[in-house]
From TrEMBL:
<dbReference type="GO" id="GO:0019305">
    <property type="term" value="P:dTDP-rhamnose biosynthetic process"/>
</dbReference>
<dbReference type="InterPro" id="IPR011051">
    <property type="entry name" value="RmlC_Cupin_sf"/>
</dbReference>
<protein>
    <submittedName>
        <fullName>dTDP-4-deoxyglucose 3,5-epimerase</fullName>
    </submittedName>
</protein>
<dbReference type="GO" id="GO:0005829">
    <property type="term" value="C:cytosol"/>
</dbReference>
<feature type="active site" description="Proton donor">
    <location>
        <position position="132"/>
    </location>
</feature>
<dbReference type="InterPro" id="IPR014710">
    <property type="entry name" value="RmlC-like_jellyroll"/>
</dbReference>
<dbReference type="InterPro" id="IPR000888">
    <property type="entry name" value="RmlC-like"/>
</dbReference>
<dbReference type="Pfam" id="PF00908">
    <property type="entry name" value="dTDP_sugar_isom"/>
</dbReference>
<keyword id="KW-0413">Isomerase</keyword>
<feature type="site" description="Participates in a stacking interaction with the thymidine ring of dTDP-4-oxo-6-deoxyglucose">
    <location>
        <position position="138"/>
    </location>
</feature>
<dbReference type="GO" id="GO:0008830">
    <property type="term" value="F:dTDP-4-dehydrorhamnose 3,5-epimerase activity"/>
</dbReference>
<comment type="similarity">
    <text>Belongs to the dTDP-4-dehydrorhamnose 3,5-epimerase family.</text>
</comment>
<feature type="active site" description="Proton acceptor">
    <location>
        <position position="62"/>
    </location>
</feature>
<dbReference type="GO" id="GO:0000271">
    <property type="term" value="P:polysaccharide biosynthetic process"/>
</dbReference>
Length: 196
């Protein structure tokens, strides 16, 4: 498995080897030794999430209040998605930076999101299936969002789609508004929580 560090501090893309033969294929999108070698610690999964989306659906930008925080390991099991991350950690060396990775399309690439990094994706095909391991269980009052179409962020969403957002994401504040309201996690708190 190949690991590549992304533009957001502590975030990585992982590309596994695909074993194909006349029967089909076998792939391991998550491999603990490769993860530990890149990130420096193990990933402790508390929950496995699954979503299926129609073309144009945008989910996120979502992150979890830290502490307790929630890290994610995400891959696309079917279809294709453009996956985004935004560093929301106040005090981070990459605060406000974003990066994106195209997932799916048979690559089984995966992306790791450390605590305090917001996650969003757009489905590029109908029936796009995303699977993500998360480090903590879902607690609604800990879940936060930033509007994915915030013009100040200017994320490069594909121009050939009509965005479909949930009511929660349509009503989410912009990045600057969330920062001014004190909703963003502190980098020091995220690093400390990940060290536990």
């Amino acid at each position: 498995m190949r690991a590549r560090e992304l533009a957001v501090a502590g975030a990585f893309e992982f590309t596994p080897e695909i074993h194909a033969d006349p029967r089909g294929l076998f792939v391991a999108p998550y491999q603990e030794p490769s993860f530990r070698a890149a990130v420096g610690r193990s990933f402790s999964a508390a929950q496995l999430n699954y979503s299926r989306s129609a073309r144009g659906v945008i989910r996120g930008l979502h992150f979890t209040r830290t502490p307790p925080g929630q890290s994610k390991y995400v891959y696309c099991a079917g279809g294709r998605a453009l996956d985004f991350m935004l560093d929301t950690r106040v005090g981070s060396p990459t605060f406000g930076k974003w990066d994106s990775v195209e997932l799916g399309g048979g690559s089984f690439r995966a992306v790791y999101f450390p605590l305090g990094v917001a996650h969003s994706f757009v489905a590029l095909e109908d029936d796009t299936v995303m699977a993500y391991m998360v480090s903590s269980s879902y607690v609604p009052e800990q879940e936060l969002a930033i509007h994915p179409l915030d013009p100040e962020l200017a994320l490069p969403w594909p121009q050939d789609i009509t965005p479909v957002l949930s009511p929660r994401d349509r009503e989410a504040p912009g990045f600057a508004e969330a920062h001014a309201a004190g909703l963003l996690p502190r980098y020091a708190d995220c690093v400390a929580a990940e060290a536990v």
